[in-house]
Amino acid sequence: MKKTVKNCLFGLLCLNLATIITGCNDNDDLLEEDKPTAIGLAYTQAANRNLDTVYNDLVNALSGNSAIGIVAEVNHQQNAANAGLELNPTRVVLFGNPALGTPLMQANQQAGLDLPQNILLYQNVRGDVYATFNTVQYLASRHGVDTVSTLPKISTALTNLTETATGSSIQMPENETVALNEGVISIESVNSFADSYSKLRASIEANSNLKLVAELDHQQNAQSVGMALRPTKLIVFGNPNLGTPLMKAEQTIGIDLPQKMLVYEDKDGKVYIAYNDPQYLAERHGISGETETLVKISTALSKLATEAAQ
Q1: Which pLDDT score, from 0 to 100, does residue 104 have?
Q2: CA distances from 79 to 66, 69, 74, 218, 299 (A)
Q3: Range 248-273 average pLDDT
Q4: Residue 136 contacts by C-beta under 8 Å, 6 or more apart in sequence?
């Protein structure tokens, strides 16, 4: 009898140990799955630092660099709360260095759609804090500017900023490249550059569901560092009621939100309005099941661009 009891206890111990080991493996898998997987998105996971500390360190570093200008700071969580919605801590800061970014737009003005640079910080449901940014290879392949000499400097700056703020090393995505013009919708305008932009801005301001976040005159910024650039302006705006559900599905899409529209005049004097296809953004970040929201966003963006172009 004693031997039987002993064997039973040993069996239970083994069973519990196996359960623990299996559980650990499951957690490891979950950890792997929780890591950012979007195409062209580099990331670091903060080493024993909370999101506020990481964000403040990042903003202080940006503010302390005279060559960099902060364009906007967006607290997606706060914007969601203002709309009566819930979202885990998610913040993005938009910033730029015209001396580094202008050469990309000189090669292709459309690159201004992904400029200024963005760094997204978020805390997931597990409490893990991540900092993410678009790799220069992603931007180069999307806009065909892979030969621009400032790309390595931009990459180094983004890496240093995020590694310093998080205290951990950059992890590069498995896939960094996309097709030329991937996910970019462009509409030619019959109006002048100034009129196209004014009409677009007026439509955004007239829509009570939209919030104007920032405006950026890429041409003016280029001139501030002694560089030439054809008329190119970016307008940033958002609707938390539509953007929040996408971020709840996958927080990394916060790097592509708020929405952006680029208005520019090319070398032939033609004016274009370019913006990101919401369906492409959803696919990039692995979002599914948000068809109704994506249709609403697509319809709204198409209407804004079309009205400004007519």
Answers
A1: 98
A2: 29, 23, 8, 27, 22
A3: 98
A4: 151, 152, 154, 155, 158
- Residue 198's alpha-carbon distances to 113, 181, 235, 257, 307, in angstroms, are 18, 25, 11, 22, 11
Residue type, 89: P
Domains by residue range for the chain, with CATH: 37-309 (3.30.310.70)
What is the signed CA dihedral for 34, 79, 135, 216, rounded to 10 degrees? 180
Q: What is the pLDDT of residues 144-166, one digit of tens each?
A: 999 999 999 999 999 999 999 99
- Return the axis-axis angle of helices 151-166 and 51-63, rounded to nearest 10°: 140
Residue 46 has which token pair? 């903060």
Contact 59, 198 (CB under 8 A): no
- The pTM score is 0.89
> Which residues have CB under 8 Å from 8's CB, separation 6+?
none
Higher-scoring residue by pLDDT: 19, 126: 126
Confidence band of 33 (pLDDT split at 50, 70, 90) = low
Question: Tokens 């979002």 identify what position?
Answer: 287
